[in-house]
Amino acid sequence: MGQPVLKGTTAGATLVTLSGKSPEVVPLPAAPAKPFAAKLAPLTKSILVNLLPPLITVALILLFWQIAASGPQSSLPPPTKIWEEAKDLIVEPFYWAGSQDIGLGWRILVSLQRVAIGFSLAAIVGVLLGALVGQSVWAMRGLDPVFQVLRTVPPLAWLPLSLAAFRDSQPSAIFVIFITAIWPVIINTAVGIRNIPQDYRNVAKVLRLNQVEFFFKIMVPSAAPYIFTGLRIGVGLSWLAIVAAEMLTGGVGIGFFIWDAWNSSRLSDIIVALVYIGVVGFLLDRLVALVGHVVTRGTATN
Amino acid sequence: MSYLKIDHVDKSFQRGAATTEVLKDVSLVIDKGEFVSIIGHSGCGKSTLLNIIAGLTPATTGGILLEDKEVNAPGPDRAVVFQNHSLLPWLTVYDNVALAVNKVFGRTKSKAQRHDWIMHNLDLVQMGHARDKRPGEISGGMKQRVGIARGLAMEPKILLLDEPFGALDALTRAHLQDSVMQIHAALGNTMIMITHDVDEAVLLSDRIVMLTNGPSARIGEVLDVHLARPRKRLELVTDRTYIAAREAVLKFLYERHRFVEAA
To answer: What is the pTM of this model?
Structure first.
């Protein structure tokens, strides 16, 4: 230390103190209050513009469906019949009346829990492996061909093997999620890390950041947009896989509910469950996108 | 005892069977507190030379001695101000400097001392007011100021500036040149600057090192600039020493080592 602070760097910017009375806040005449309706108008308009088109689309689909499935020979139930048969499932997602007679909300939560565990593991392992493959040429040469082959294996093809290995449905389902979600995370992370600008690497070298510091301070933030693209694809895939895996492993999840409903010919229940799955999958995707948006804020701007 | 010695540095790049020699037998001794500019046509290897001094690129033969010790890896004792500022866009101005300060002084200074040191360096480049902004929210000149603050904050033995003002407009560039002159006068740092701007080189430097055209660029001439400091941009316009120095560099660049466009 002991270095002199620069004086006079703001040459010409002299502080001028005004004499006389101290400045005070002058109240402006209050703006005439807008009528309530006028304030509400833009909001109402944006809701209408964004909400009306999908609502119309859904209404048209339901109408078409109702007409198409109303015939006496129809094998699928029309919307009105679904409402009659599965009203309790639609309006009461969280009822609890015994171990297998529970609302779809609970089943979704059970499936979500499996996805959360499997996907979190896939995210952690995937980012680490992706970092290795992206950073080291030799790791890429060795691992990339293996990854490229394994990632084409369909999720359910892993299930018998994991059932044999874990001898229990819960860890098997989680493993299937893991092995499904990990590939896009690895591949996107590796691409993101290969795309770290040389300038950032030079900064790290001049500062002599060690491997751990480099990983957390340069690599992860710099590759974050890519990583989140991988995570978003991964979460979508794991939601696809859990439904299929639960159909086979049984238990409480939403996948098993569909299989169970099929076995007792409750087609209306299946259709309600499909809507649940679709909505939750959509929300999961949005959630990861939102987290990514918040975390990568500022990374894209340079 | 020399402060920094560039000792018979050769650099060639191998691409397949072809070898391109970029620098040939570059030797230079720089004293403590000196401001040296390295000037040459684009592509002549000036940035390669700076990277070799910084340790970012290894020399093929020869080496760099800093206070009589060989340096061949990058380190904060030779801080670099990069051409395109190289601030990390996800960190605020303050955090960009803090990354360097915490790494270099993490063990030797307390948290409060480090904070004061970060703010001191930001104030030095007049960027204290923008401490909480991200690089994307400030102008190019301001980014480069922060880049300089980050370099200075490492308290380097030598500050290496790689065409620091190349991407800036003329007015901003002049402001930053003045700031660098003031900082050099106040702190007495040793600085090496890469540039292709003749006026900038003459205005700022104690010595101007002129590189010949590549391939196999070498030091063509070294010009001592005997101008008293502090230097004032406007007064220099008519100063005879300034005009002579400017002429000497221009003649070197445009008469004897005319840039031949790569055919």
So the answer is: 0.78
